[in-house]
Design a protein that fits this description.
about 80% helix; single chain; globular; mainly alpha; about 250 residues
Length: about 250
């Protein structure tokens, strides 16, 4: 990657816009697409808290796009389990070596391709209790591996949410987890002002892409969603594994 800061941030903004479009259409993908660029540019130690700020902005955009369709009961159940677990996971991340962080991120994304299909094939119907348990597990993983959108997607889909209600409710639940993680980063000195500014710059392009995505979300087929989700997970997982072993 070049050393010119303008070129670096231009690349981040372009990729961030594309990531926001994908996330706004399928409910996930912003972190998966943008994270490899942030890792290669700033390193995994900075990329994780930067992405926490970006995730806050991305989820806010999805919530405001579909505000009237949020299922607040599902969101609350998910958040009750996820908030404390996300804080614990974020604290765990801060003591891990950088190469372990890279490898964990890559393996997680690759594992979610068969994992998501396994959940979908069994067509589980989640209750509010299931969402609370899923929130706790996903919350802890969110603290460690930055994004669990590929896992929270089937969790909320199994509850029966679709289209705008699914996108906004998943975003509202995830927002609570990311706030918990961001507060934990701040408490342990991992979210200084320069990291916040980098997150705001990156997140602005993600928000723009997310708002634009609403124009086409109703036209997305289930098959396209599955192929797109699997594709971004495989590509990002391989990039992050390459970063860990190089």
């Amino acid at each position: 990657m070049g050393t010119d800061p303008l070129l670096i941030y231009a690349l981040v903004l372009v990729v961030g816009f594309a990531a926001g479009m994908v996330s706004g259409i399928v409910g996930t993908g912003a972190t998966i697409i943008l994270l490899p660029i942030l890792v290669l540019t700033f390193g995994p130690r900075e990329a994780v808290p930067i992405m926490a700020v970006v995730a806050l902005m991305s989820n806010f955009a999805k919530i405001t796009s579909w505000w009237r369709e949020i299922d607040w009961r599902a969101c609350t159940a998910y958040a009750l389990g996820g908030i404390p677990a996300a804080a614990l996971g974020a604290r765990t991340l801060l003591v891990l070596p950088e190469r372990i962080v890279d490898a964990a991120l890559g393996l997680f994304f690759l594992a979610m391709v068969p994992g998501r299909r396994w959940l979908a094939a069994r067509n589980f119907k989640f209750t509010l209790w299931h969402l609370a348990i899923a929130g706790a597990v996903i919350g802890f993983l969110t603290g460690i591996v930055v994004s669990t959108g590929p896992l929270s997607v089937p969790a909320f889909a199994a509850y029966g949410l679709v289209k705008g209600a699914f996108i906004a409710t998943e975003a509202a639940g995830s927002l609570a987890l990311y706030i918990s993680k961001a507060v934990t980063f701040r408490e342990f000195g991992a979210l200084p002002l320069d990291i916040v500014l980098k997150g705001l710059i990156s997140g602005s392009s993600v928000m723009a892409g997310t708002y634009l995505a609403r124009l086409i979300v109703e036209r997305l087929s289930i098959a396209t969603f599955q192929h797109l989700l699997d594709g971004v997970m495989v590509i990002s997982g391989m990039v992050l594994l390459w970063t860990a072993i190089r």
